[in-house]
Amino acid sequence: MKKAVSIFSSLALMAGVLAGCGPDKETTEPKTSEKNTTTTENGMPPKPEKLVVWEDVKRGVALEPAIKAFEQKYGIKVEYKEVEMATKQRDQLRLDGPAGTGPDVITVPHDQIGQLVTEGLIREINVDQSVLDTFTESSLKAETYNGKLYGLPKAVETPVFIYNKKLMDKAPTTMDELYQFSKDFTKGDKYGFLALWDNFYFAHGIIAGMGGYVFKDNNGTLDPKDIGLNNDGAVKGTEYIQKWYKELFPKGIIGENGGSTMDGLFNEGKVASVMNGPWAFQGMRDAGIDIGVAPMPTLPNGEHVKTFMGVKGWHVSAFSKNPEWATKLIEFLTNEENAKKRFELTKEIPPVKSLINDPLIANDEGAKAVAVQSQYAVPMPNIPEMAEVWGPMATALQLVANQKTEPKKALDEAVKTIKTNIETNHPSK
């Protein structure tokens, strides 16, 4: 888990560094190749001989059946290459795209979209409403930047409620129930519930559920000048976090080693329940824990915990000479049939609405919980300014967790720092 969170943070930080190297003017969409200026009867340009896809490492097995079906349906050969998704696809596209040796389609985490658009590496896509209706609203938001759609989602992940069935009969439906259970259960080195709420990746769910927000969402466009991390809701959420640290959480889960400490306690059977992500499932099972998984319990205000969500998507390279057919390909790769097949082969959870209640996912307790929780989740902001949020919020939350600072004061200081860093590192165009 610690590794997973650090990946998200490092990606965001890298995006901030790169933003300083990006163009100062608005990115313009690349011109469509002259080859595609004529259209066939169905409105599509002539078919290319070949399309090239970059897939994530160890995921080609899920791509192969979809490619075969696409080739049979459209008569277009598709080649794929496995390239590490988190950073290498982006970095390699910067070189291979302009050289004319890059792919037509890439897959990247959604929080890279803003930087990729700014650098002119991916292009806006246009798809029918029937295609959009396939996916959950939150997953499509993740693929949107400045109100424009730049990809289609293939998989989601978000923190959920995980419990030891030996210590907890069933998942509580409210945080009030969980609080009472934890008060009764916690004694000595036994804990009813633990969460890494000094880490903003996890704390966001509580803060946003109480009414806070990172950047104001104006119909699909995030406004980095409107920060809601010290509004009344954010303060209430942070006060609620401090309550758990003051009364029920051990000091050992604060700071850099908090994740490994929490994992160790849970895997030793000393913790009844935790907030963690699907990346933790296998390690828990390997430790011999019979885990149950559910969406996060609702907050005292009746709202859902609005966890951060990560989305992996398919995107059309700005350098593709066949963008219409590349778009057709990613529509095909993410349709219900191929999304279901991908889950069977990789356990990556598709944000396809029709599959949430499909027996394949519904009977997989972990996948079902992630799918349901993702409907309440908020995509991590995909604009470069997000890089300035992680550090100040981590500082604020650790001060709150250690009970050294009142939540309002800590959040005010964090937002002040965030705004200063945004003004310095991301000057308005």
TrEMBL record:
Residues 20-48 are annotated as: Disordered. One of its GO terms (molecular function) is maltose binding. GO terms for cellular component: ATP-binding cassette (ABC) transporter complex, substrate-binding subunit-containing. SUPFAM superfamilies: Periplasmic binding protein-like II. InterPro entries: Maltose/Cyclodextrin-bd, SBP. It is a lipid-anchor. Belongs to the bacterial solute-binding protein 1 family. PANTHER family: MALTOSE-BINDING PERIPLASMIC PROTEIN (PTHR30061), MALTOSE_MALTODEXTRIN-BINDING PERIPLASMIC PROTEIN (PTHR30061:SF50). This is Maltodextrin-binding protein. It comes from Anoxybacteroides voinovskiense.
